[in-house]
Design goal:
By secondary structure, this protein is an alpha/beta fold. The protein has helices spanning about 25-35, 75-90, 105-120, 135-145, 160-170, 210-220, 235-240, 255-260, 270-280, 280-290, 315-330, 365-375, 385-390, 395-400, and strands at about 15-20, 50-55, 60-65, 95-100, 120-130, 150-155, 190-195, 225-230, 245-250, 270, 300-305, 335-340, 350-355, 380.
């Protein structure tokens, strides 16, 4: 089982299970995964918050199954649970909507279908518990015509219909995350890639952070040669190489130092910018950098961090970027921070969003955050892009992506 959890959460296909209370969502997950991983009860509302379970479904590979609270929950606590469920919708790659056999399609299911259509999410609609109430083909066809989608009659209890549903899931799921290159399309077999990896108080003891690991692995997959050094060793590594590296990838925090060391003839970028290209729309994030120029003291800026790491003395999002922004605009900004899986739905009043590298969320979630910002005509920029802009080297660090 350890192998199932080795793929990072943000690199998995997210499959969300949605529907009314007691539609059989937890039983469905247990049948789909062939494990008793979700609590099953005849009492409506047993699942109170989204439950994430890392699994592997062949041939899809690593997936994240999400068991959500009933979308028709009631009361003040129910509203909070529904809010959590709606947050899950923004990161769901494939949504499975369950309707209990014998129940009509209600406004709840129609609302889900409408929301997922607007999000561009693939939807599988299933009628569960057909072992308890048999539906004839005519009834299934009526539901299908009503919602405009194929309908899969299933029984989570007996397994009826699951082979067909699983085939549909495999067919509509997005391509594997690993098919989106990190850097392997930027180098050729035999090329040397030099990685600058600062080791400071924020670096996890005994290991590298996720973007660094992904970059090195993608380099090896490209049959290129990976070299890793700290900032004060970069010059020695360059001097010792008979042929200059095809690419230097650095932590964005030391852009200024590494830019001064690495000759202009050598391509340079950062882990954060590579991550932005893989997880989101890099062109839009680059366009967002122009908004830094128009910032004035007192303007409201949102810094979004997709993880909840412990803040360090010279933290990149809490200390360094605010300090560089202050130097740029000539005064203090009204900076607010938002951390974790969720993202504010109301972005009114902000002049700019500065987003982290997004290594802890999936591509759909990052694209959703960019979409929400666009709806508010609010520029968004990535950490690495913002830092490069503030140091006057944005053009250089984007040059590796220009054909």
């Amino acid at each position: 089982m350890a192998g199932l959890n080795q793929t990072p959460k943000g690199n998995r296909i997210f499959i969300g299970i949605f529907g009314k209370r007691n539609a059989g969502k937890s039983s469905f997950i247990n049948r789909l995964t062939k494990q008793d991983i979700a609590l099953v009860s005849n009492i409506a509302g047993t699942t109170t918050d989204p439950v994430y379970k890392a699994m592997e479904i062949l041939p899809l590979g690593p997936v994240m199954i999400i068991d959500t609270a009933g979308i028709d929950d009631v009361g003040d606590l129910g509203k909070l649970r529904i809010g959590k469920t709606k947050e899950v919708m923004s990161k769901t790659d494939v949504a499975v909507i369950l309707l209990e056999a014998g129940q009509p399609v209600s406004d709840f299911e129609r609302s889900l279908l409408k929301d997922f259509k607007e999000l561009g999410t693939q939807v599988i609609f299933a009628v569960n518990k057909v072992d308890e109430k048999t539906l004839d083909p005519k009834q299934i066809n009526q539901i299908s015509e009503e919602i405009g989608l194929p309908v899969f009659p299933i029984s989570a209890k007996t397994g009826e219909g699951f082979d067909e549903l699983r085939e549909e899931l495999i067919k509509v799921a997005p391509r594997a995350f690993e098919d989106i290159p990190f850097l392997r399309d930027l180098v050729n077999p035999g090329d040397v890639v030099l990685f600058c990896v600062p080791i400071d108080t924020a670096a996890p003891k005994g290991r590298l952070i996720l973007p660094q690991v992904q970059a090195i692995r993608d380099c090896l997959d490209a049959r290129a040669v990976a070299m890793v050094a700290k900032v004060d060793e970069i010059q020695n590594q360059l001097d010792n190489l008979k042929v200059p590296p095809a690419l230097v990838v650095t932590d964005s925090q030391v852009f200024k130092e590494v830019n001064a060391i690495v000759p202009e003839s050598i391509r340079l970028t950062s882990f954060s910018i590579l991550m932005a290209r893989q997880k989101g729309n890099l062109d839009e994030l680059v366009n967002g950098a122009e908004a830094i120029e128009s910032l004035r003291p007192g303007d409201k800026v949102l810094i979004a961090e997709a993880c909840t790491h412990q803040c360090q003395a010279d933290d990149i999002g809490r200390v360094k970027i605010p300090r560089w922004l202050k130097q740029k605009v000539g005064g203090d900004l009204d900076i607010e921070w938002y951390t974790g899986d969720s993202f504010p739905s109301d972005l009114s009043g902000y002049k700019l969003v500065i987003h982290c590298g997004a290594c802890m969320i999936n591509r759909r979630a990052m694209l959703y955050r960019q979409k929400v910002s666009k709806e508010y005509s609010l520029p968004m920029v990535n950490y690495g892009v913002a830092i490069a802009y503030l140091h006057g080297i944005l053009g250089r660090v984007l040059s590796p992506f220009h054909k």
